[in-house]
Amino acid sequence: MKKSILLELWLAVLTYVVIGAAIFRFLELPKEKEMQAIMKETREKFLRLHPCVSRSSFRVLVQNVVTSVTVGMDPGAYFTNKTRSTWTTEGAIFFAGSLVTTVGYGNVILLSDEGRIFCVFFIVLGIPLYGMLLTSTGEHVGTNLQARISTMENFLTKRQLLGTVMVRFLASIFFIGIGFLFFVALPVVIFITLENWSEVESFFYVIVTLTTVGFGDFVPGTNPVNTFWGYQYLVLLWIVLSLFYFASIITMIGNWIRQEMNNLEEVEKLSQSSNLMGRAKEPSRRFPRGSKVVPAPSSVTTRSMTAPSTTSMTAPSKTSMTTPSKINPSKTSPPKTFPTKS
Predict the structure, then answer these.
(1) What is the pLDDT of residue 325?
(2) Rounded alpha-carbon distances, angstroms, from residue 166 to 153, 155, 160, 161
């Protein structure tokens, strides 16, 4: 890639990020100020209604609640006799799967130093392993899909029903539509039903998860009221299968683009070779060594040259006209002269 194109890409990404930051700030800053005002009003109202509670004690209580929420604990458990652990077998597998798939919701925080050290090694070894699995599965599935589409493409092109480009375009739209239906639309409906999220919240969670961003503000299975055992297993399976499917679609489209690029390069090479062969057939103009090449007179010099007058042009006399004889190396004869008529 040329340096100019690389520089343009850097500028485009930086511009995109800056514009996005400005839009996010414009949209979210008023909401943040509104929430801060509500929290301040709630605090003052609580202290006013409960004068026996000091501000320092209330601050300690709030800090403990925030810390509990940060590490993934349910604050509602403080008001009931039921406690729910984050590190159940299902929760631990879901956490490990979110690390390997690079989603990383961030709703669970490791508290022990031993757990943090193990997490570092787990990520360093697990992410490349999952990346190899994702790439291999995507190539395998994408190659099979491409073979099926090639069969359909040959069938339609032989009967002159559709061209190659149109077949590939329609196939891409078809498989992307299937993926959107089963891995985006259907999960959105399920999360709306089971998690009591809104349409926007469910769609936001699905896209954030499938792009492996994983903010952690919405995590399925944290509310055990409407869920069931094995629910997070199914969510983890949905994440893995969705990434595999879209990786295969991207691989298939990438193979098509690579084929088109190779075809264009071959056409350019053939045109260049034909031009070189055409130039090779042309006779080359060579001058003997030491000879001076006189340039052709330009239009300016030809215009500046004056035609000779007729008076200065004298016809040669017949006496000066001689016919050259054939030169014989043994015998030489003087040139013949013709008399002029008086």
Answers:
(1) 47
(2) 9, 13, 12, 10
Question: How confident is the model at residue 27, as a pLDDT?
Answer: 93
- CA 211/CA 136 separation, integer angstroms: 19
Residue 126 lies in a domain: no
Q: Which amino acid is it at 110?
A: L
Q: Which residues of the chain have pLDDT under 70?
A: 1, 72, 74-84, 224-226, 278-342
Only one residue has tokens 């057939």, namely 281
CATH of residue 209: 1.10.287.70
In this structure, what token pair is assigned to residue 237? 């399976």
253 occurs within a structural domain: yes
Q: Is the dihedral of CA 176, 178, 181, 182 positive or negative?
A: negative
Position 184 in a domain: yes
Residue 173 phi, psi dihedral angles, 5° rounding: -65, -40
Domain range for 168 is 134-274
Burial 162-186 (b: 16+ CB within 10 A, else e): beeeebbeebeeebeeebeeebeee
How far is 145 from 139, CA to CA, in rounded Å? 10
Report how far residue 224's alpha carbon sits from residue 80's, in angstroms, rounded to the nearest whole number: 14
Number of folded domains in the chain? 2
Tokens standing for 47?
């202290």
Asked whether residue 250 is assigned to any structural domain, the reply reads: yes
Task: Please tell me the distance from the alpha carbon of residue 165 to that of residue 289, in angstroms, as a whole number.
Answer: 58
The Cα–Cα gap between 208 and 104 comes to 11
DSSP class of residue 184 equals I
